[in-house]
Amino acid sequence: MENYEIMFIVKPTLEEDAIKSTVKSLEEIITGMKGKVETKDMGKRELAYPIKKEISGFYYVFTVEASHDAIEEFDRKARINENVLRHQIIKLDEE
């Protein structure tokens, strides 16, 4: 298991239930492959530049302990999820 930090932005035009279900489905990708996820809601923020014609979004940060395969699956599903504007995965250094 390796440590990662994942940041992603969810569309602001979604209803609250749709936002929660999007975040939950992304969490379940990691937990379904025996990973651990700690979620931090950063709230709604303005974007530096428009992304897919959106000027703001809901930011979330996952602190993850998971296998490389789980992270690859998260990356694949986040790319095809229409509710996710952008995502970034950072591998944390081992101490």
Q: Would you kindly provide a written description of the structure presented here, covering whatever features stand out?
A:
It is a single chain. With 95 residues, the protein is an alpha+beta fold. It has one domain: 2-Layer Sandwich (Alpha-Beta Plaits), CATH 3.30.70.60. The protein is 31% helix and 48% strand. It contains two helices and four strands. The chain has helices at 16-31, 68-80, and strands at residues 2-10, 36-51, 54-66, 84-91. The chain has a four-stranded antiparallel beta sheet with strand order 2-3-1-4, covered by helices on one side.
Task: List the SSEs and their pairings.
Layout (H helix, E strand, L loop, with lengths): L1 E9 L5 H16 L4 E16 L2 E13 L1 H13 L3 E8 L4
Antiparallel strand pairs: 1-3, 1-4, 2-3
